[in-house]
Amino acid sequence: MAALLFLLSLIPAFAYIKEGELYELIGPSIEDFQKEFHGELRVICFYVPFSSEYTRFSSAYFHAAKELAKQKLPLKLAKIDATNPKNAEYIKKYDVGGYPAIVYFPAEIDEFYHYAGDRRKEAFIASFKEKTLKLREFADTDAFDKYMSENGLHGLVLGVFQEFSGTKYEVFREAAKNLVHIYPFAIVKDKGEWFAKFDISEEGILILRAQFLIGPKDRAAIANHKLENSTTIEEWVKHNYHPHISYFTKETKASFDQSQAPFVMFLFNLDPAHPEEIKQNLLNFHESANPYYNANFKDRRFLFVLADKKEFNKGLEPIDLDKDKAIMLTVMRNDRFVLREYEIFNDNGKFLKLNVDAYIKGLETNSLIPYVKSETTDVKSENGIKILVGGEFEDKVVNSELNQIIFTYSKNDRLTQPTLQILEDVAFHYKDDHTLEFLKIDADLNELKGEYNKPHLPNIFLAHKENKRVPNRFVDADITKEKLIKFIEDELTPKKEDL
């Protein structure tokens, strides 16, 4: 018995548990996990047990782990219960917000990254597998040509060396280790054929642009022979990898941080089965964007990017843009500008270049009207309360010279109907006051802007005619007709300091 107790005492108090191909981590065992598998890709999912979101997510994550284990790849997948108090400091440390959330650590790197891609099993497998790749090696130029032809949306950072040794080689490997999870890296040993292929005379790095993304003024390859240290190489890659139109994903967004310019995002479904269609659409987009290409990457007024719409549909759904097969989207000065599918392509699928030209020119001249999710309705008023839709907000609220009571609601909230009944009684009370207007807006069907976009619906705001953008909110949860009238009277009665 004493011997058994002695053996048990040697087991760490927070040893992690392996469930199939997943590791369950608790407290300090997270540190143990990081140390033991530091040389591999580490993927950690923070979850809330039994939540509906995690129930859907967990099956894909578990089966992805099972499939990846069969491939014997250098990666480990783990999960952490976000409701366990022992894990609280790691939730803060890894900047975890909503659940389930995934963070990953590239091999031999302590810095973490948030996974923001698709959450299907196939997407997990493809993404995590890609992140385990170290340096690709091409046996010959035919293998290289085949790879580039099959990856029309991705470029390549290629190291060309006479021997896999020496200072330049080691510096390149160090830079690759820090960036390989973002950019594809490869390495080749020259025996005469590689120098000739790229018309270079010494060892160095080549950035090879993706064929579908090369515009009229882009060079297909850029060389760097000054391999002084890994930091300067990393900066050079980040600056030069992106051509005038870049392939944009949620995960690679951080690599665009050298440019503060708004993204003119061309989102459409990238079906690899139709590469010529992709190429033609991008050539058309290039033609429209070409006049704006002159500045260097970091100084451009706009950054033109291509993205697969399927990857961003979840974020587009709340603003009713998920059903369009293609859109152009630009966020600038906190406003959203959109060109819809029917404005980009006609009924026969022909690219409407004039519309795209006008859109880009409108961004440059600040002449476009911002996009706002907005319900269309023929009903203008109900029981003394006018119906407001998102697209009319600027005109009917901000530009109105009346004091206004604005009710924001969701039909699904249990408090909406009783609150609306009280509001209708109050509107009737003020029916003869032509300086005060009552409006309501369905937050499920319309986008709320600025200070009106508050959680925990329903909400009642009083918007003073002098300052519509900063309304006062009625905050008493126990709403009655009398309390709401008093709130309005107190707000609209001139205060002594205003007299």
CATH C-level of the largest domain? Alpha Beta
- SS field, number of helical segments: 16
Major sheet details: 6 strands, mixed
CATH topology name of the largest domain = Glutaredoxin
Class from helix and strand fractions: alpha/beta
Low-confidence parts lasting 5 or more residues at pLDDT below 50? 1-14
Signal peptide: 1-15
GO molecular function, one term: protein disulfide isomerase activity
Keywords: Signal
InterPro entries: Thioredoxin-like_sf, Thioredoxin_domain
Would you kindly provide a written description of the structure presented here, covering whatever features stand out?
The chain has 499 residues and is of the alpha/beta class. It folds into 4 domains: 11-132, Glutaredoxin (3-Layer(aba) Sandwich); 136-243, Glutaredoxin; 256-365, Glutaredoxin, CATH 3.40.30.10; 381-493, Glutaredoxin (3-Layer(aba) Sandwich), CATH 3.40.30.10. Helix content is 33%, strand content 21%. The chain has 16 helices and 22 strands. The chain has a 6-stranded mixed β-sheet, sandwiched between helices. A 6-stranded mixed β-sheet has the order 17-18-20-19-21-22, with helices on one face. It has a 5-stranded mixed β-sheet with strand order 7-9-8-10-11. Helix 3 (52-70) packs across helix 5 and helix 10 (275-289) crosses helix 13. The chain is globular, with a radius of gyration of 29 Å.
